[in-house]
Amino acid sequence: MNPLEAFRIAIKELFANKMRSLLTMLGVIIGVASVITLVSIGEGVRWQISRQIEALGSNLVIVTPGKGTGGVSGPSFTGAISKLRYDHAQAIERQAGSVKNAAPLIEAGSVVSLSQKEDKKVSTLVSGTSESYPEVRNQPLRAGDFISRTDIHEYRYVAVLGDTVRKKMFGDGNGIGEEIRIGEEHFKVIGVMRKKGRTLTIDNDDRIFIPITVAEELLKTQQVSIIFVQSVNPQEVDDAVSQTRRVLNRRLQKSDFAVSEQKDILSTFKGIMNTLTAMLGGIAGVSLLVGGIGIMNIMIVSVTERTREIGTRKAVGAKNRDVLLQFLLESMVISAVGGALGIGLGFLGSRFLDRLVPNLKTMVSPRSIVIAFTLSLLVGLFFGIYPAHKAARLNPIDALRYE
User: Fold this and answer.
1) Fewer CB within 10 Å, N or C, the chain?
2) What angle do CA 342, 345, 351 make, to 5 degrees?
């Protein structure tokens, strides 16, 4: 029997028992759909975060407290108490020749209200920083002015609003010239930042910027959570890293800070996301194994039901390999059709999650489709071997006598 004829018979058997075939495929369909959907979530998250990190620019160096790897929007997650101070950022700017700017950040949550309407209150993040922040973080102003060096030196109570805070407090207006209250202190709004967007669940625009010297008094701390350092150009990033370390080593212990560049963060993050994506795919792949067991069970039942048919074929000259090929093909056809349906269901599932979950971007990659479909075929092959081998070993005389 040639493979084409065996394939034709396999398709015929598939349609002869439509309901049983569909139920047999169900495990494979769910397994492949799960792989496609979960991997698309992992790919989407990786793409979103990679875009956010790359948008920071190729000449960014990040200083964080402790020995942990630095982040892009906050302190390291080492639990270390920050020994970084504003004067450290100033020293980096003055003494590191390859550094153009250094923007420190002191942050804390606070309740903000309009001075004239104290009943209108919003909770947001207050960020004390320096005049170089917009350039270092590649976040220009939408309107007005940012904090100036004079504002910092003269302890002026001025504020620059992120886009989300602006909408909450002033709707369609920009609020420039208005007075707001942060804690018990009154601040004058002098500018509004251009919308930056979100990083996963973090709204980068839900914050208010104030002079770092004022933040030290208002928040009653001098602990800088992170320092963003901008090199003179992308070619001097490595020099900026070494010079920043050298400057800080004169003032702090090596264990008090960590210096990393944007490409290191991106590389580390991609490694983590690759592992997470593989883990999600592996978890979903368990469903494929369950589906494969279902295929094996149904194929064993099919062999039992078709014992006389197998005996008849052997009696008229069919060889063991012909019977083996026939049942293997039937198993693989079931898994292949189930895999194709699972791909369609997984694609629809990822699109549904896009619409259902705000700020979640899923990406169905051709690689995940190929891997999922290949796995479904391998499942059909692997779990079809035992039933096919059992069918091929049947004695034709005993098979013909089977009732």
Assistant:
1) C
2) 140
Residue with tokens 């026939």: 326
Nearest-angstrom CA–CA distance, 158 and 218: 12
Tell me the domain boundaries of the chain.
Answer: 3-52+269-401, 103-222
User: Coil, strand, or helix at residue 299?
Assistant: helix
Those residues with Cβ within 8 angstroms of residue 323's Cβ, 6 or more apart along the chain or in another chain? 310, 313, 314, 388, 391, 392, 394
Mean pLDDT over 265-292 rounds to: 76
Quote the tokens at residue 347: 């694609």
HEC string for 366-395 = HHHHHHHHHHHHHHHHHHHHHHHHHHHCCC
Given a contact cutoff of 8 angstroms between Cβ atoms, the answer to whether 115 and 101 are in contact is no
State percent of the chain over pLDDT 70.
88
Could you tell me the two tokens for 241?
């890293």
DSSP assignment of 335-372? HHHHHHHHHHHHHHHHHHHHHHSTT------HHHHHHH
Strand ranges inside 83-217, DSSP E: 99-114, 121-129, 141-144, 158-161, 179-182, 185-193, 198-199, 202-203, 207-211
CB-based contacts of 403, cutoff 8 Å, min separation 6: none
Kindly give the interhelix angle for 18-55 and 262-305, rounded to the nearest 10 degrees.
180
CA dist 149 and 345 (Å) reads 57
User: What is the enclosing helix (H) or strand (E) of 228?
Assistant: strand 226-231
- 44 neighbors 51 (Cβ within 8 angstroms): no
pLDDT tens per residue, range 156-173: 999 999 999 999 888 888
pLDDT digits (tens, 9 = 90+) for 56-87: 655 888 999 976 444 444 434 444 578 999 99
Cα(86)–Cα(216) distance, rounded to whole angstroms? 9
